[in-house]
Amino acid sequence: MGILFSKDDFMGKLKKDLSHSVTKINEYVKATTSDNKFWLEGTPTLVDYYKVNSLKSKYETTLEAVDELIGSDSPLKYDFVENIPIYGLDLMELSVEINELGQDNTYNGTFYIQPGIIIPEPNDFFYIQVKDFKYLFMVTNVRSEKTSYHSYYEVDFVLSHYTKEQIELQLNDSYVANTDNIGTQKKVVFETKEYLLTEKLEKLYMKLFDFYVNAFYNNELNLFICKYNNKNCVNDMLIHFIIKHNLFIKNKTFLKNIILQQIFVVDDEYQKFYKNSIYYACEINNTKFLTLENFDIEKYNNPKQPILNVSKDPLYGFVMYETNSEGTVNPYNNELIRRIKENDLYVASEGYGVVIYDKEDYFLENILINFINKNSNIDKIINDIDTYDFIENYSTYMLVPVLMYIIKRRLSDIVK
């Protein structure tokens, strides 16, 4: 079963982000094109852009050839790109001029487009709507220009007598420009299904973010703590994993950012233990270093962080030992580690007619087994996460940051 999306949610998100996106675009333009006044004379116009897909098209690259070939039998193929920002268009002025000329007459103009979005070329089309008026334009000429800071494209266009519907008969694929990424190292143009997936992932990530903070964050100590054996406990290896991957640092929601401090010095000995942990196995999707884990619970007495020693309720930490000894505990559950190493999923079972456990009891553990062993498509794993009703317990304390890491890694793969 695939991940489902709501078209209304998608369009609402685009409209909600428009003001923020335009601001970011203008900031980038000012930083890279300060010696070109025309870039600064207004906000960009977001257009629907139809770009020739040269790999899928077979045609002579002349304007005359295109004039003869637009239509259902044309060998030209176009990619539709929503939300492309262009500069140099005064929409109201353009609308008045076209209406005065009449759409049967020729109208031409020029716009400018930033680098790093698309590479415009002759025979592309773009579509805009001004109130009740809709216009389709065709690109006739493109010049690559340079400022002292950056390059840009100067694009000539004419009013087209074709219709949007005719062009859409020749569509190859559809894309969306994420204008938040302009001027960054991130990808700007996404396949529409990819863009929808990023929105889905961001929403799910924040759902986990909010749940985890509400359930486990201690503002006084600036730590995530949980109850274990009726004691307030913190797992420093978990904290290290969270810090290492900036799991609670979100640029878009900076007011929510939680900047944790490492509890222990991350020295060679610490790294050795970390390399044997579930968290490292998640990072490399491999179990070759994963070992059974033996811990003892000890009260904190850390002179370098006195606040941990004088908190209202005693705070305990898990101290790792290389071998099992009397009194040690296994907060990760060595049965789970065995199953991860053997790729052995939990399944519902009964003993003497009594249900020992149900598959749903180990839902999160099975996700972990599947992810580390690469059993399932990552989008299937994420879809499973989205259906789960999280509750505050030791299992979610240990595993929700791993789920956040999985989502963050998938987002990173998409926006590269």
Briefly, what is this?
The chain has 416 residues and is α+β, with helices and mostly antiparallel strands. 36% of the residues lie in helices and 22% in strands.
Number of domains: 2
Straight-line N-to-C gap: 26 Å
General shape: elongated
Q: Strand content of the residues, in percent?
A: 15-25%
* Order of adjacent strands in the largest pleated sheet: 3-6-5-4-1-2-7-8
The multimeric state of the shown protein is single chain
Give the helix/strand class: alpha+beta
Describe this protein's structure:
The protein has 416 residues and is α+β, with helices and mostly antiparallel strands. It has twelve helices and 16 strands. The radius of gyration is 28 Å and the shape is elongated. The two termini are 26 Å apart.
What labels describe this entry?
single chain, 416 residues, alpha+beta, 4-stranded mixed β-sheet, 16 strands
Topology readout:
Elements: H1 7-32, E1 45-52, H2 63-69, E2 78-86, H3 91-101, E3 108-113, E4 125-130, E5 133-146, E6 151-159, H4 164-168, E7 171-177, E8 189-191, H5 192-216, E9 217-218, E10 223-224, E11 226-228, E12 231-234, H6 236-244, H7 268-275, H8 278-284, E13 294-299, E14 315-321, H9 334-342, E15 349-351, E16 354-357, H10 363-372, H11 378-386, H12 394-415
Parallel strand pairs: 2-7, 12-14
Antiparallel strand pairs: 1-2, 1-4, 3-6, 4-5, 5-6, 7-8, 9-10, 11-12, 13-14, 15-16
Helix pairs in contact: 5-12, 9-10, 10-11, 10-12, 11-12
